[in-house]
Amino acid sequence: MEEQTPSQNNWLKKVWFSVRIPFLAIILALLVGAIILLVSGANPLEAYWQLFKGAFGSWRNIQRVLEKSTPLIFAGLAVALGFKAGLFNIGAQGQLLLGALMAGYVGFAVKGLPAYIHIPLALLAGLLTGAVFAAIPGLLRAYSGAHEVISTIMLNYVAINLSDYFSEGPWKDTTPGNIVSRLPAIQPSAEIPNIGPVPVGFIVAVLTSLLIWFVINRTTFGFEINSVGLNPHASKYAGMRTKLLIVAAMVVSGALAGVGGAVETMGVVGRFQPGFNTGLGFDGITVALLARNNPIAVILSSLFLGAMKGGANTMQFYANVPNQIIDIIQGTMLLFVTAEMVVRWVFKLRKQRDTEITVTSGWGQR
Amino acid sequence: MDNTYSKTADALMDTDKSVILEAKHIYKTFPGTVANDDVSLELRKGEVLALLGENGAGKSTLMNVIYGLYTQDKGEIFLNGEPYAIDNPHDAINAGIGMVHQHFMLVPVFSVLENMMLGAETTKGPFLNKKAAEAKLRDLSESFGLEIDPHAIIEELPVGLQQRVEILKALYRDVEILILDEPTAVLTPQETEELFKIMRRLTERGVSIVFITHKLKEVLAVADRIIIMRRGKVVGTTTPAETDEHGLASMMVGREVILEVEKAPAQVGKVVLEIEHLNIHDNNQMHSVRDISLSVRAGEVLGIAGVQGNGQSEFVEAITGLRRYNSGEIRIDGKRMPQEKPRTLVEHGMAHIPEDRQKHGLVLQYPLTSNFVLCTYYREPFSRHGILNENEILRNAEELMERFDVRAPSPVTVAGDLSGGNQQKVIVGRELSREVSLVIANQPTRGLDVGSIEYIHKTLIEMRDAGVGVLLVSSELDEIMSISDRIAVIYRGEILAVLDAAEASREEIGLLMAGHISE
Amino acid sequence: TPKTPVVDEAPEGADVDQPTETFKVGLVTDVGVVDDKNFNQATWEGVLAAQKELGFEAKYIETKDAKDYDANIQLFVDEGFDVIVTVGFALGEATINAAKANPEIAFIGVDQFQGEVVPGVAGLIFDEALSGVLAGVLAANLTETKTIAAVLGTDLVPPVVNYNRGYVGGAKWFDPEISIISTYHPGGMDVAFTDPEWGASTAKQAIEQGADIVFAAAGNTGNGALIETAQHDGLFCIGVDTDQWLTVPEAHKCLVSSATKDITLSVVELIKLAYEGNFPSGNYVGGSSLAPFHDFESIITEEIQAKLKEALEAYNAGKIELPEK
Amino acid sequence: MISKTVDKKRELSINWKLLRQVILGLVIVAAILFFNARSPEKTSAVLSSTLRYAVPLILGALCGIFCERAGIVNIGIEGQMLFSAFLSYMTNVWTGNLLLSLLVGMLTGAVLGLFLAFLSIKLKLNQTIGGTVINILATGITGYFYQTGLTTQGKLWNIPLGPLAKIPLIGPVLFNNPPITYIAILLVIFSQVLLFHTRWGLRTRAVGEHPRAADTLGVDVFKIRYWNVIIGGVMAGLAGSFLTLEGVGMFERGMTNGRGFIALAVMIFGKWNPISSALAALFFGFANAMQIQLQFMGIQIPHQFVGMIPYLLTIIVVSGFVGRSRAPAAEGIPYEKE
Ligand SMILES: Nc1ncnc2c1ncn2[C@@H]1O[C@H](COP(=O)(O)OP(=O)(O)OP(=O)(O)O)[C@@H](O)[C@H]1O
Ligand SMILES: Nc1ncnc2c1ncn2[C@@H]1O[C@H](COP(=O)(O)OP(=O)(O)OP(=O)(O)O)[C@@H](O)[C@H]1O
Ligand SMILES: [Mg+2]
Ligand SMILES: [Mg+2]
Questions:
Q1: Each residue of B442-492: pLDDT tens digit?
Q2: Which of B54, B140, C264, D67 is 20 to 30 Å from the Cα of B215, by its Cα?
Q3: Distance B42 CA to ligand 3 centre (A)
Q4: What average pLDDT score do residues D301-330 get?
């Protein structure tokens, strides 16, 4: 530590500056959770210890955390990319759901393909579905002024109805004895394998994060997306095709969410079944905000959330704590991450300029 | 203090007028800025006190402190000799202070009447009494000759009338002290004259007025006393009798300022911009530009004079590809331009200095590096195959900051942290540094102080001398007069006349701007 | 105060300090909570009832994420549980996989039809149509307006559909002229059973157009319908799955009976069999019947009793025609 | 001159709109009378079901209107409703005092309103996220603390309004309802008058459109915003209490089931106007009642498609295909005094 050069020191400082708010927010949220646990007569230390063990106590648990993180990374990237373009994609949930559905369909209905074709094909199906479904609010936002927050909330319900319809109707699993509405299991050739405890989907997710980081920070497309998000008027003035960019950002965001759903179907569940993806898109919001829209940080915040989800059942089992506590911690965390002033006030931190996050404001405005 | 500007016998004589408001040792800081640094000022009964100073000198801040919008860090305010705590506008209104703000403070979707009533509602039981309010408004309109339709919706009114509503709003509240923060920026010379008459009528009734403006002529015409601020401090007090425009200008900026631009006769070349029979509807489907035909030639400055809100914005937006037009044709270098394609126009050598620098000109959260390539990021050398070349972008920013004298801590400072004048320089630098044949400059110096104005005027003339066609749109008559070669006057969306700048007179153009067509 | 989630109450005298010696029964819920007034709860009550009788350690875990079925079962496996009860068809696959990996453990799969026999797995299934028929016959007997209603969860879930088929079939069998108005919740799986206000207002809409008996087969949505019916004088309502007299006291005014499947009892039986070492594999059909009439005993005449008996026989003989949906 | 022509235009368009509305109203009345003649019970059943479904939506939408007219976006209505439903239920369980339970429900809504106001006004937190936080916390906390086996002690009952309740068709539908339904109807009228004919309303709308202008006229922007969000919270609280005290009489985890979000849609549908929003809510209520009625009549449509209708309609409305609605201009933007 002592022999660090000043530049190394600066680098560390920079990292600390960019992570301190989320980090402290997590601490605060865990404290609030601890208080609720105490009030309801549980031992918070024991609970958190079991939570930790449940997440990292064995290779199997670690694998589960990675599995849970994988769709979160995609959902988080989807939301973060939307934020970058000034769009609040609450619809990631619906896009993810339909992505999962289509991947499930291609996964079981297309037969006789080798894995190296079938897997990409099913992923592509999820990707395209998510993209198309996200294009609707994108187009509406760009060309009719319908605010994406409201239209994507509504489309989420549409997505649920659609996926229910297909799972009960035309694509229902007709295996003898099955009574549940769901799709048949995907072909083995569409299953995404694991390498040791690491799901291949997770590796793809990490690579995708790097790619998105590069696109946002180092390409002209990223430049345009950022501009449109920060100042659509100036972007139009500068010759960017703002409406098209809004649609494009929404489409890419939806594609990411769709892949998230596909990976979930193909790597974890093994088929599409309603109710298996509940809340993933909404968790994407938490992930993106926790990561302050930085694609690399999305990996870390997904891992954190994935660990909480992965450890929850062990916590419930051994520490006798209802797992709704996870919801409470998550909500509190979101609150503290976004309400920086609370964190600043608690920890007496000074304001820094670059820490503001941009999210859209009201709807109905054009 | 420089004794040239110390109180003269004249000014001392005025002291027998009683001091109605006094601000003592006001300090006000914003993060990173000291806006008011130990400012003291006194206002006497029935006088017009002009407050003069460059941009960011702290004039509006001081007035906002007096009006209770801001709370001073230190200092006190006295009313009629008694200390008076003004913590919010409510206190100020109660004390008989009214203010017409630099930016309109009207609710756009409300009617004139609703805007009048807001904050000073007359009620009958629990309900609003619109009848009583309307009667009061009509009385007021009559006694000051300020006619207005009480039921008109603000956003549908031209800015001149909106300004009228602002003044009526202050009068509606029975003011003893009236603060006017740059009220003439959007008025024609004639409307300005009208305003001065009203001000005189008010002072005769004992109302005291603080009048802020950047137009030195107006100060000399209407003020009883003049206070000059610079960098948050009061740097002098004078009277119109003691000084002239040059005196005021150098006092404001702290150095000698050249108010007239020196330029050689224009060397006119081929036509670069041609507009034929252009018609535009605005957002409310009202005709805002009617059948305009104009052309700009290489090596000349065509000035478009007009009061704000007469269709200039729509006109410029249409030629720069930001707005669809309904009919007509636009050609650059003889080539027909498609609708709504700013990029195509940039490719054809058009530069555009937009009217609203923060809305259109800059991405405030972007660093200067990105803002400098906002229109050219997709081209070599700034990017190749869709991938940005950070080194080139940085080098470009360093070069332009040097060339256009942009004062900022570093090329990666975000644009939003720059002062208005420096922000404008970034835009000018970006637009004028690439190969262009045509410059569209819309209100390029709005709200800037004389120093910055001088610089931008000089740059525009340099472009013209280098053979570029310049279309200058401005509501500042002085600006139009001093740098245009030809002047077109726009009124209610129509070009009333195109005059040779050398032969046109201020009065003639002023009348045209008000819609009077002379024979 | 919140509920204590994991009940761990070995009866007095049982030696919990020697886990190797103790018999242990675990329960994994379907997505949802153990106190859902529905099959998760009924199953858990079965476990507790068996515990009372036999004295063993019992523990449950609530599934929050459908992907955790395996992991939750595994927690019990790791802790050396002897019997693991999994609730709901959705856990069927996870249960079979776990059973194959752990042949020494007895698995009870509630509502899990077994296509083929897997050693160590007993699929506890029910004939919902049967209790539906009885409910329909009862309703048809009691109605004065000749209009009876059913408020149903989603048709995505076969047991719900079966209840309704039985209800309609039974009522028509008794009186072909009777008019039956029934409605499924239009939402998906996630809301169909947790929307009591929808259940209540739907029941009211039916009541206002003359229905005087409301059969509610929709989990908590249905509970709303029961409570609503209780607000109207002189009407009857019929609950579902368990004896809802015990779970929805607010509906006592109208709750004449419930179309039940005997989850609790069957679970007790299966646990006992496992305890004794006679655990069966394959499908185990639990009982379906009407719950006791409680306060309404007096109005259930001999005649009605006879009709119900007759209906049971007719059904078993395949003489009652059931509609498609 | 210019303003005059504008005036004329506006008058003309209002007349057209009025005409359209009158015609639409007449068609609806005629249809109701027609069906009433054919089968009175069914008609009144469908209409009361319509009203009942609409009540929480109306109250939720009023919450949205109060908040957004003052410039605060509230997507936490769902959470406010759920929380209030829970606490008024718990109060009913503990005390059996319905009035107290109702007050607790309203108070809960108000406190959450205050919380949202504090987050968005004082901490200047992004308002959409503030609402999301309320929604997540409401699901988590009510789920955590809810326990079954509790029994409520009664629920709010119908109060027939004397002879009014005896009018055919209208009587049973409109004048024989439990209290919160009456309150909701009165609140619609009250809100309409408050917003457009009182000092408070004028100031509220000004604050939602141009807070700085209001500030310069001595209007306390923060105070107006705080109070409106709190009042809105009371409305959401009433909506929640409606579910547990008047509608069902019980609580269930997540029992609001998206009604808070549909209320938002209703608010936009109704263009931030109480009466129009109430009509929009009735329309959604009618769609729901008809969906049930069609099933009663044995007409089977895949219910997933029927279930989508309100959401698709909302999208169509916000897309401006049925007349554009314009949100308050300052909505969602924290007001900074300096
Ligand atoms: N709300 C604010 N936050 C931060 N800084 C501010 C704010 N308002 C004004 N300032 C800064 O305070 C200084 C004084 O501003 P002020 O508006 O009083 O200038 P002014 O003399 O009125 O200028 P102008 O002629 O451009 O109107 C400037 O540096 C300005 O940038
Ligand atoms: N609204 C604002 N919020 C925060 N900081 C501001 C704001 N306006 C101005 N500033 C800061 O105040 C500083 C001074 O601005 P000001 O406008 O006084 O500059 P200036 O000295 O007048 O320069 P110029 O003559 O080029 O306009 C700037 O560095 C800017 O960062
Ligand atoms: Mg400045
Ligand atoms: Mg100013």
A1: 989 876 777 778 888 999 999 999 999 999 999 878 889 889 999 999 988
A2: B140
A3: 25
A4: 74
pLDDT in the model for residue A2:
41
Give the C-alpha distances (Å, rounded to integers) separating D270 from B459, C15, C146, D25, D323.
54, 66, 42, 16, 11
Q: Could you say which of 3.40.50.720, 3.40.50.300, 3.30.450.20, 3.40.50.2000 is the CATH number of the domain covering B258-349+435-519? A: 3.40.50.300
Strands (E), B16-114: 19-30, 33-44, 48-53, 74-79, 82-83, 97-100
Q: C189 with A97: CB under 8 angstroms?
A: no
Contacts of D255 in chain C (CB under 8 A): 194-197, 220
ipTM, 2 decimals? 0.81
Contacts of B321 in chain A (CB under 8 A): 239
User: Does the beta carbon of B56 lie inside 6 Å of ligand 1?
Assistant: yes
Q: Per-residue pLDDT tens for B360-369? A: 899 988 999 9
* Strand (E) or helix (H) holding A313: helix A295-319
Q: Do chains A and D touch (3 or more CB pairs under 8 A)?
A: yes
Q: Is A195 helix (H, G, I), strand (E, B) or coil?
A: strand
Quote the pLDDT of residue D164.
Answer: 82
CATH of the domain at D115: 1.10.3470
Confidence (pLDDT) at C130: 94
Domain holding D167, by residue range, is: 39-318
- Judge if the beta carbon of residue B29 lies within 6 A of ligand 1: no
CA-nearest of D126, B352, D59 to A362 is: D126
Using the mean position of ligand 1's atoms as its centre, give its distance from the Cα of residue B419 in Å.
Answer: 9
A–C contact: 3+ Cβ pairs < 8 A: yes
Contact A231, B362 (CB under 8 A): yes
Please, which chains are in contact with B (at least 3 CB pairs closer than 8 A)?
A: A, D
* Centroid of ligand 1 to alpha carbon of B34 (angstroms): 9
pLDDT tens, position by position, B197-216: 989 999 998 999 999 987 88
Residues 237-296 of D with CB under 8 A from B: none
C70 in contact with A, Cβ within 8 Å: no
Using the Cβ of C77 and the Cβ atoms of chain A, whether some distance falls under 8 Å is answered with: no
Nearest partner of A70 among A187, A214, A208, judged by Cα: A208
Residues A328-355 pLDDT 10s: 888 888 788 777 666 766 666 655 444 3
Length of chain A: 366
Cα-to-centroid distance, B49 and ligand 2 (Å): 25
Mean pLDDT of D227-243: 97
Number of domains chain D is built from: 1
Q: If you average pLDDT over every residue of chain A, what do you get? A: 86
B309 touches chain D (CB under 8 A): no
Question: Subunits touching A (CB < 8 Å, at least 3 pairs)?
Answer: B, C, D
What's the CATH code, domain B1-96+176-254? 3.40.50.300
Of the partner residues D44, D152, D291, the one whose CB lies closest to the CB of residue C208: D44
C309 neighbors C278 (Cβ within 8 angstroms): no
Same fold, B1-96+176-254 and B258-349+435-519: yes
CB-CB under 8 Å, A358 with B386: no
Tell me which CATH code domain A24-34+44-347 carries.
1.10.3470
Q: Kindly report the nearest CA distance between residue A159 and chain C, in angstroms.
A: 10
> What secondary structure letter does DSSP report for D337?
-
* Domain residue ranges in chain B: 1-96+176-254, 106-174, 258-349+435-519, 364-434
pLDDT digits (tens, 9 = 90+) for C174-190: 999 999 999 998 877 77
CA-wise closest residue to A306 among C93, C62, C68: C68
* Residues C6, A316 contacting (CB under 8 angstroms): yes
